[in-house]
Amino acid sequence: MQSRLLPLLLLAATAFTPATLSAQANSAPHLEKRGQATQLVVDGQPFLMLAGELNNSSSSSLSFMQPIWPRLAADHLNTVITPLTWELIEPTEGNYDFALVDGLLAQARANHEKIVFLWLASWKNGKSSYPPLWVKQDTKRFPRVERADGTKVDILSPASDALRDADARAYAALMAHIRTADTPQHTVLMMQVENEVGVLGDTRDHSAAANKAFNSPVPSELTAYLKAHKSDLEHELLTLWVSHGEKTSGTWPEIFGESPRTDEIFMAWNYARFIHVVTAKGKAAYDIPMYVNTWLGGGESQPGNYPSGGPQPRVIDIWKAAGSALDIYSPDLYDAAFASWCQRYHRPDNPLFMPETNGGANGAANVYYAVGEHAAIGFSPFAIDWPYQPGNPPDVWSEPAAASKSRVPPPQLATSYGVLAQITPQILDAQTRGQVHGFLLDKNHPSQDFTLGNYIAHVSLDEIFGFHGEGNGFGLILSTGPNEFLGAGQGFRVSFSPITPGKGQVGVATVDEGSFDNGKWIPGRRLNGDENDQGLFWRFDWLSEHIEKATVYQFQ
User: Fold this and answer.
1) Tens of pLDDT along 331-360?
2) Which residues contact 231 (CB under 8 A, 6 or more apart)?
3) Which whole-number Å values give the CA distances from 12 to 5, 19, 25, 79, 406, in the listed order?
4) Contact (Cβ atoms closer than 8 angstroms) between residue 475 and residue 492
5) Domains of the chain by range and CATH?
6) In 11, 64, 310, 377, which residue has its Cα 20 to 30 A from 111's Cα atom?
């Protein structure tokens, strides 16, 4: 029986393979769990976004953008993150204008770039500056947030069903147009829904409607979620809930206590419910990955100093309880504790995507860590189109949360992107196998150990004749075979030991620098002698970012 079935099974597999591959190639961009990583899949292949976000107003003019695209492409970006604003899409209610969308798609394609669009609609950086005038002027239909002292602020209330429905209609119309205009090209990879939402200037909305909701029973969907996910809730949220009796019914203060953290949870629920509805309407029109971003509130900063209700790590579970339409919760990460924030956002149920971060030297190093250590699906410094003049210092400005945004585009970032673009296929493959690690090294954190295959890789700041080089080390290393490794970066060195104690020592057999040209390895120098410390270390010097291959051997 088995012998007769086997040919039929093989025939069936052969018959369906082309159709399956064709369906994958024609499917819209989507997230897919591949081995140990969740990856963005475009036209059937994993895609790593080496991206940059434009200044807020750049893409509102096609003529302004015309000279920018070629420079971004020359700096090795493969994706541009750029706003689309409600005020330009629906200038009068029910009348949509998609000329700008079509123009940006045409310009991106002409420069071989992909796009992530930011839907700047009801909120941007906590405020409401991007709705159309017909929304801004109608405070009765579209009410505003109120502070505790009764002052109305120019922040649209997420409790407004009318606002939610108007925003959702416009977003659904946009997504329907993108589906028509971008099939089968798949220029648009993902969508950001709103931007850095939350209440600024107070811990929550204190309008009459909001106060009534705050002192009403917490929705059963939320308490059921807390109960069902107790074992994996974010620690701070779990501690707050348990410390107040782990109740499954009651008002917001009764379940979470009277504090600014409770106000933040309340606003998180309201913003999340609103945005999940908008996102679901958009996905019904065109289902591609959609995410929200977060203005981070670090340390002891109180909600309201940063937007209260945005998806901070401690309230991501609140957002998840509110709906399932959103795919990713992302940090806008300008804080110096880059690795720590990455660890909090990279969760089993949340892949890491970095839509806004520092450029310059910091970004050039951080991208290795995000992609190598946390399988980031993309990395994107802000204000990537800011004019750069060699020799001039960067212009830096700060937001109220003391988050410094460096307006330094390439050359540093362009160098890192150029290196990473060459080894993207190897990185994506290693991510699925859990065989890649990224790192950031400095005098306070000069070394780190990783398991790669049958070895422990000991990574440390590079030394020259016993002295540390100047600056910080950064990079990534990955396993390409039982005794073979690929690495990139600068200012670090690697030694190896067996993963099993007592199995002898490990020597560095060969080190070759080189590059990839359309996937083909082009070897350069064979690095031996002083360049590998007489076979003791696989070294990446301080002179420049580069790619190297290494092989190792074991001996007693």
Assistant:
1) 999 999 999 999 999 999 999 999 999 999
2) none
3) 11, 12, 20, 39, 56
4) yes
5) 44-214+264-428 (3.20.20.80), 435-555 (2.60.220.20)
6) 377
